[in-house]
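Journal club prep — side note

Before the paper discussion, L.F. wants everyone to see what a predicted structure for a comparable chain looks like in token form. Sequence:
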Amino acid sequence: MTRSSAERTAIRSGLAVGIATAVYGISFGALSVASGLDIWQTCFLSLVMFTGGSQFALVGILATGGAAAGFTGIATAALLGLRNVIYGMRMAPIVGTGPWWRRAISAWGTIDESVAVAIAQPTRPLARLGFSVTAVTVFVGWNITTFVGALIGDAIGDPRAWGLDAAAAAAFLGLLWPRLKRLQASVVAVAAAVVATVLTPVLMPGLPVLVAAIVAVVVGAYNWLGRKDDS
């Protein structure tokens, strides 16, 4: 089957973001084991939770507070996971209708990376293709690298020294940069970033992200500056 140039671009974007994100799974596996979970608990967490921010929040709190902080860790992870509800509403028209099992699989793969690649595409079919490629790549790669990271444990030392914490962020920046040429997108990004930065020292982990997401939705939904982009 011959792919069009636009389809190949969507696939490359999905693979690039997916692989960069999957590499970061090594970091999670190592940190999870260091926080007190064993290898199989770590792998099970990646398999069933499959949302990196919530996973890191959970093991980070466990690492500082131990088992006694379990409830706080779960609550914080749940708060961070609420952003996927917003993603689900955005992705519903792109995923479309179909058998319940297909929609369930799509919901499982609705994460930051797959949504980012999808909405960066110019048409709905390309968005669906980018979404699928990214979701599958991240899911398979993340679970493999989580296992590898858990095996390595704290033998690699601080994962940040290897640059693993920057891989996913760099991929995101490369993906979003072309969209920031528009005034509306730039204002949304700056407003959300400022809100998250200001609230991070004040609110419990997870809440700054949610508040920033609400700001982004409000500014973006009303398209206050969109008319200037089109003039």
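L.F.'s comment for the group: The chain is about 75% helix and 0% strand. Keep this in mind when we get to the figures.
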